[in-house]
Task: structure prediction
Amino acid sequence: MIGAVYRAELRANRIALVALPVLSMAMYGGIRYLRHLHTSNAYSYQSILDDAFVGGVFLAMAITALGLGVLHIARDTGQGAWAFLMHRPATPGQILLGKLASALTIYFAVTAPPLLAAIFWAATPGHLPGPWEWGMALPSLVDLLGATLYIVTGMLIVLRNARWFGTRLFPLLVPLCCTIAMWDSRFVTAICALLIGWFILLAVTWSAMATRDRPSIQRWPARLLTSIALVPASILVPVIFAAIIAEYIRPATSFFPHQLTLRDGQLLDSTYDAQQWTARIIVNRQDQVLTDAPVLPLKLTEQRMQSTMLYQDHNAWSPRAQAPNYRRFGHYYAADFGSASDGLRSWYYQFSKRYFVCYLKPIRGEAFITGYIGQNGSVTNKARVEPFAQGSRLNSSTGTFVIEPQRVYLPTSIAPPSGPIFTSPAGETCRDASYLPAYGAKPEDARLNYVIITDKALYLVDAQRIPFARMPHPSNKPVVTVAITPDPDVYMALYQNENASYIGGASVFVRFRADGTKLAQIEIPELQPPLKKTFGNSDLLMMALFPPFGPLIDAHLPPGRGLLVLATQSVIAALGALMILRRARASVISKILWVIIALLGGVSGLILMAGTRSWPLLVRCPACGKPRRASVLQCDHCGANFPIPDPGPIGIFDTTREPAHA
Amino acid sequence: MSDYVIQANGLTRYFGQKCAVDQVSFRIPRGCIAALLGRNGSGKTTLMRMLLGMLEPTRGSSTILGHQSLAIPPEARGRIGYVAEGHPLYPWMTVGQLAAHQSRFYPTWNNTVYRSIVDHFQLNDSTRAGSLSRGQRAGVALALALAPEPELLVLDDPSLGLDPVARRAILEVIINVCGGGDRTILLSTHEMQDVERIADRVLILDQSQLVADAEKDYLLSHVQEFIIDNTKQNPDIRGLVSTRNQGNSLHLIVANADEAGAGALLAAGAQQSDVTLEDAVIAYLSRRGSALAGPAGQEGGAA
Result:
């Protein structure tokens, strides 16, 4: 049976194979984009792990999958066509599986060849700079699998009885959520998200297929899963609209201004928001510090999220949030060495064991490396480094790539006591850190990229081979300076670890020219406390809709006001639920259960109830005139039965007519 | 097994506040050819879809081949042939491919039956369904429904939009293939000639309600026509179904006419005559809501 449906669907939808040349052309464009990257953007690098490339590939796959899902159901949605499809000795599940198998076959036929071709192209030496590992293909391959969720979503969208301009597209939020969960997560997490998404969508689609999306005859687990599939969009869409309107009415101050404010070389304020973290200070060629320094548009990465959460956890509902000196609270933050790694998938590193973590704990101007992960297996938490992004150059004459040594300059006060010493124009003695192999590193350390120095030790991070060496520090002075010079043409010599300045660690910014001369030094004595957040209308809305998560959404909401919002919306939601349930003549148990859910879940609980329960049709009672359930013979109010239609003396029946309620 | 292939008990279906089928109860015995008659929008298709489990009733229940309509197992579905309104087919398949495709689902597929029907319509196996005429498509749809040799055949207006030749061909197929056996047929149609020719039983749906459910002969024996000359005033008579002015005479269609009513009319000079099924059904279907809208027991009529 499944085979018959499969063959018929494959034949019916073979037109979708035209996506193959389209996707191949798109992939060719993506490859051209990758090759163009290095010349167009100094901070980009050529890799199939590039965010834009990976994102573009995924988008193309998702659109293809969605289209295939829609195509496989849409032609059968007419009343007669549906009857022709379903009225045969096969279960709806068999028919659905046949359609799914067909859609998956076409999907992989049109998406896999161009993707595999791109992967093999990237793996071929001479095409992209930097080392290649097959694990680097994993993100795209996982996307290839992840986009299959959109096939079943497309089917569900067409199967649902909803208006196209209403809620028909709501199931799209399920694969979108799964995509987000898979996007920047570990491999295992990505697979779990994929499986959960498939389970929900398949169950809901099957239920919609078997019942033609008639909730009244679906079993409650199916209705519950349908609600789960629809709730995210049911909440998000109104919230987006409401938030937009609310922001128009009274614009809320952003959480923190996300700029570095520099005055006379002093960092007066340093703040961040979720998407843009302060990362660097730039000076121009006239040695002037640029005020309103641009902020790198970095993507939120896992460890940053973690540090955000830590920050929020420490401050949420706490009077300490108002304290002027943030250093006392010992915030941890993640140090992400090498901003070029931003946006890459941590699970690639997990998979390839090419990662390490360094958590810094800045307390009173001191920085300690509190933990790291490396191939040696000492594990604390996650962070990652891009080991090969910088320093690679294409030798156009030979077509090969050369990984150039990175020069790291350190003041002699913190550098090891060997190697050439030179004096900067400022009079400070510096040492070229490319001689650091003298401290026990290996010859390959010519590729050394990162040096981390604390008051206890000096760490050499081999950008090509992640394990780093530890050696005694010749100086006992506390220093938190990380010096990196990836590009001699870029004046910026230092990367300040994001939010280090915000957290309050006294940092020293030292900038050098490419020739080793010191350009400037800024010491940041103490940071001002961040601006106090103004509570916005959209925050109130978010709290109202997500009561359990409200406190996390805004850490600075005064407890009293927040609780008031929570309590009010919960009571309103519970009253709404009770009113609806009374009107629907729900049982006492049902009333109690849903009122509790509405109390706990607020508006989202109410929406869950609306989706999970089947709602009776109410018609006017011919006897008492009040609304009564059409599905029940006896009136809830007057107890009268619906009168059996009687044609009277003109009716002709040769059998005894049985009453409808018999 | 029950002698009744189809049993409906109080089937009711609302679309929003509109009641499309109102507490319809009937039974169709095995081997019976039942015609479901009614005007457009009277609820015929809705009733059929509820019987086949394609639509859930708002109230009431039904069984088909002994199974609840909403839970017909695949095996039982294989014993029910169904031609939906509009004769839907896969347009990209040829006539031959349609047979090959459908035959994979049915263990009882009889290709001889399929071939004979397709040949009757002079169709080529290599013709794509999308390029068939409406009549040819109806023929293929009927062939696909009959080839599995179903116990029950449900035909939703199979002759809708067909020319007289195609309609005749469809009718011949039904008579030839189904006649004489114990196959049950539920047929919805507007063609009274077809009904007169093949139906054993007639069900009339009017404005979502069942107003007649009887053997064809029983129905005809209970409907009479009275013609009164030189009058245009409707008489007050029980069981009046419809009235029609023709020249100077008034034609009355009366159902279940009792002796008193008929006697009064005859005494007033009316002439009594039998009616054809077509006249009777049209009389029922040309009524307007006043009769059914009134309380139970109120006299119906078009007056």
About this structure: Residues 165 and 310 of chain A are 41 Å apart (CA to CA).
